[in-house]
Specification:
There is one protein chain. By secondary structure, this protein is mainly α. The chain has helices spanning about 10, 15-30, 35, 40-50, 55-60, 70-80, 90-100. Helix 6 packs antiparallel against helix 7 (about 90-100). It is globular.
């Protein structure tokens, strides 16, 4: 939602890809068991198969609906914090998403 690009652009645009890779590495560092469940190649394959699609959060944002930040992003951050893992990239993206979504209501989920 932040970059306002279609899924395929995440792999084509070198700046998007760099962020994509760093975020994947950050998440795998916090949840190493997930590399077996969701290997990098599987994630990129989803992006390629849905290359012309927009993320559900971007679709919601463009339609003026609240984005599902709590269930998609905040829940991962909270789970990582319970493992004493910090997710600085995800946390920054989460704050940006809340700023984009804010309409005078809502709060940070700790």
């Amino acid at each position: 939602a932040i970059l306002q690009v279609k899924n395929g652009e995440l792999l084509k645009n070198p700046h998007c890809l760099r962020m994509f890779n760093r975020l994947y590495e950050e998440l795998i560092d916090a949840f190493p068991e997930m590399v077996q469940v969701v290997p990098y190649e599987a994630v990129t394959k989803v992006c390629m198969k849905t290359a012309d699609n927009q993320s559900s959060m971007l679709v919601d944002h463009l339609a003026g609906r609240p984005m599902e930040i709590n269930t998609i992003v905040s829940a991962v951050r909270v789970r990582a914090e319970k493992r004493n893992k910090k997710l600085p990239i995800l946390t920054a993206l989460e704050m940006i998403l809340y700023a984009m979504d804010w309409k005078g209501e809502g709060e940070w989920l700790d």
